[in-house]
Amino acid sequence: MSEISQRIPLPAEWSGAITGCIPRNPELRPMEAGKHRLINTLLRAPSGISSRIRIVWLRALGAKIGKNCWLKDIWVPRNPWDISLDDSVALDRHVTLVSSGPPTGTPRLHIGSGTYVNRFTIFDVHESITVGKSCMIGPSCYITDGDHGFTAGKLITQQPMIKAPVTIGSGAWLGAHVTVLKGVTIGDGAVVGAGAVVTRDVPANAIVAGVPAKIIGHRQNSSTASNPADRD
């Protein structure tokens, strides 16, 4: 108890504020929790309203967006008809969805339900990028299905794009600053370490890292996973 509270009788519910401890009055705990929820709701309210407006606007321009999606301050510079988002997709601030090429009648970029994409990630699609359900994609990732031709004797700017579809399986997790290049398939439940450059297919439930990304392990059930401390 602080010196102040020793000299001056204080209500029991004040003691936590004086001493830095949890308030003694248990009735204040749900009150504090309710206060925190209210503050967080108020902080999210402006972005929630702008997300709804953005969804309506993109739908009107031709994007296919499911129910309960959450789109923060994302950027769609062109071809909104090439975007297909299933229910409950969440795209955080400054995610970019850029598509190149004439309309084909089929969206080039498809993101499955329940997938979350963190800040500053870029999808650069020319042919097809498909992301499965319930994926987690970290901040500042770059995912593309195209590459520049670079044959000698001709300017790279004058050479056609080389394209190959990219698929990211359901339940995959990409860490921050991951790059996924053309023609890659990442299997269901795979984990890609931060900063990796994925140039080849990744099997389901594999753990990869590095430049270029290589397999460093596999996910295991909790009942069969070994304790790192037990390894030699």
What descriptors fit this protein?
single chain; 232 residues; alpha/beta; 3 helices; 19% helix; 25% strand; disordered N terminus; disordered C terminus
What does this entry look like structurally?
With 232 residues, this protein is an alpha/beta fold. Helices cover 19% and strands 25% of the residues. The chain is built from 3 helices and 21 strands. The chain has helices at 3-7, 15-19, 28-60; strands spanning 64-65, 70-71, 83-85, 90-91, 96-99, 109-111, 116-117, 122-125, 129-131, 136-137, 142-144, 146-148, 161-163, 166-168, 173-174, 179-180, 185-186, 191-192, 197-198, 206-209, 214-218. The strands form 4 sheets. Strands 2-4-7-10-15-18-20-21 form an 8-stranded mixed beta sheet. It has a 6-stranded parallel beta sheet with strand order 1-3-6-9-14-17, covered by helices on one side. It has a 5-stranded parallel beta sheet with strand order 5-8-11-16-19, with no helix packed on it. A hairpin with a 4-residue loop joins strand 20 (206-209) and strand 21. The chain is globular and about 70 Å long.
